[in-house]
Specification:
single chain, about 425 residues, alpha/beta, VC0802-like, four-stranded antiparallel β-sheet, binds adenosine-5'-diphosphate, binds aspartic acid, binds magnesium ion
Length: about 425
């Protein structure tokens, strides 16, 4: 008998009918002779609605209370799914993240899973039940407080459960047929990838392809959990996220796996920083102390006359207030003149393991952007990724132009988006 972990995202459980449809799919898996553990996201846009609700009460909700609020979303769907499966005549039991033994760090809003002690789940499975787990949440053992894992966190719950239970399969069900060469909502001619390596998927996810949460891919790579990303709306085979193609494999990897985009970042520019050793260190120490995740950094060449320079960096827009406060608190030591925030930037990234051995990729990327009239504001590269910051309103055009320039468009028909609001 195989043990299967299935995760259903928000758009797959958006309303009662959708929950019943998912229940039938779970029941089919059980009737095919498998043990099944299911993890679910909050219904539809529930998490966003709860965040809006909190914002309507206060500009800075208390992180602990915020986590209690947000975990309610997943608890609604887990209980309803259990009821739907029970109505199909199959035993099932729902568990909150803490009940399922998901142990996390303390960091509210972006806690990391450090361990899973799935005793109650194994007992439920032994009793012939489907175990349903609320995604996106866990417990910090010292404080005994409930935590959330960050947006998209149910993906990580699924992989962590699969690793802890030594599951035979980890299936992530969503509203598209798999991982595509670009977001099908922006590029209908995007092609479905049959297989993508952990390494490439990690860069795609970290560059904004929200089909999988980056932490989930990291976790899967570490514990060697192959992930099957597929649609809950079709019966099609999806994308396998797994180790690189083994030697002797017939498949020849394309140079580029895909194009990702991200509108969730902002750019802070610190103007008039003294151009002396230690300035950048002081600035970024202040920001790091506030636990802000910095992405790209650019320092302008300083004018010799003035001896000052400007430093720009990008960060998640949601963390701008913390970064701004941290820099202001250390203003005297950093000694800058002014700080500006630009939240109308967009980032486009090109990802592919084949880039390592292909020198012409950057030139081709930049000329595609030039032809599309897209101005480049910042650049960063790794050996398998090039990212560029541009204007947010230019981002969709940039993604389509680059996708076409690298020959990624498919003629096999438009990619289907089955549901979701894309929010
Ligand atoms: P779920 O609610 O199932 O977790 P998400 O909305 O988090 O779903 O992720 C699925 C969405 O990710 C798709 O609807 C699609 O718009 C978006 N997406 C972004 N990049 C990609 C990509 N490269 N391949 C597939 N989907 C992508
Ligand atoms: N409900 C959470 C979110 O919207 C977690 C998830 O869906 O994975 O981010
Ligand atoms: Mg998601």
């Amino acid at each position: 008998m195989s043990l299967v972990v299935q995760k259903y995202g928000g758009s797959s459980v958006a309303d009662a009918d959708a929950l019943k449809r998912v229940a039938r799919r779970v029941v089919e898996t059980v009737r095919a002779g498998n043990q099944v553990v299911v993890t679910v996201s909050a219904m539809g846009d529930t998490t966003d609605d709860l965040i809006d609700l909190a914002q309507a009460i206060t500009d800075s909700p208390d992180p602990r209370e915020m986590d209690i609020l947000l975990t309610a979303g997943e608890r609604i769907s887990m209980a309803l799914l259990a009821m739907a499966i029970l109505s199909e005549g199959v035993p099932a039991q729902a568990f909150t993240g803490p009940q399922a033994g998901v142990i996390t760090t303390e960091h509210h809003g972006r806690a990391r899973i450090i361990d899973v002690t799935p005793g109650r789940l194994t007992r439920a499975l032994e009793e012939g039940k489907v175990a349903i787990v609320a995604g996106f949440q866990g417990l910090h053992p010292e404080t005994q407080d409930v935590t959330t894992l960050g947006r998209g966190g149910s993906d990580t719950t699924a992989v962590a459960l699969a690793a802890a239970l030594k599951a035979d399969a980890c299936e992530i069900y969503t509203d598209v047929d798999g991982v595509f060469s670009a977001d099908p909502r922006i590029v209908p001619s995007a092609r479905k990838l049959d297989r993508v390596s952990y390494e490439e998927m990690l860069d795609l996810a970290a560059s904004g392809a929200k089909i999988l949460m980056p932490r989930c891919v990291e976790y899967a790579r570490r514990f060697k959990v192959p992930i099957h990303v597929r649609s809950s709306f079709s019966g099609l085979e999806g994308t396998w996220v797994m180790d690189e193609t083994k030697e002797g494999d017939e498949v020849e990897d394309p140079i580029i796996a895909g194009v990702a985009h991200d509108r969730s970042e902002a750019k802070i520019t610190v103007i008039g920083v003294p151009d002396v050793p230690g300035s950048a260190a002081r600035l970024f120490e202040a920001v790091a102390f506030a636990d802000v995740n910095i992405d790209m950094i650019v320092q302008n060449v300083s004018a010799t006359v003035t001896g000052v320079t400007d430093i720009s960096f990008t960060l998640p827009t949601a963390q701008v207030p913390e970064a701004r406060a941290a820099i202001a608190a250390d203003a005297a030591a950093i000694g800058y003149a002014e700080l500006t925030v630009d939240d109308t930037i967009g980032k486009i990234s090109l990802i592919g393991a084949g880039m390592r051995s292909n020198a012409g990729v950057s030139a081709q990327f930049f000329s595609a952007l030039r032809d599309a009239g897209v101005n480049i504001e910042m650049i960063s590269t790794s050996d398998i990724r090039i990212s560029v910051v541009t204007r947010s309103e230019k981002l969709d055009d940039a993604v389509r132009a680059v996708h076409t320039a690298f020959g990624l468009d498919t003629e096999d028909g438009e990619a289907v988006v089955y549901g979701g609001s894309g929010r």
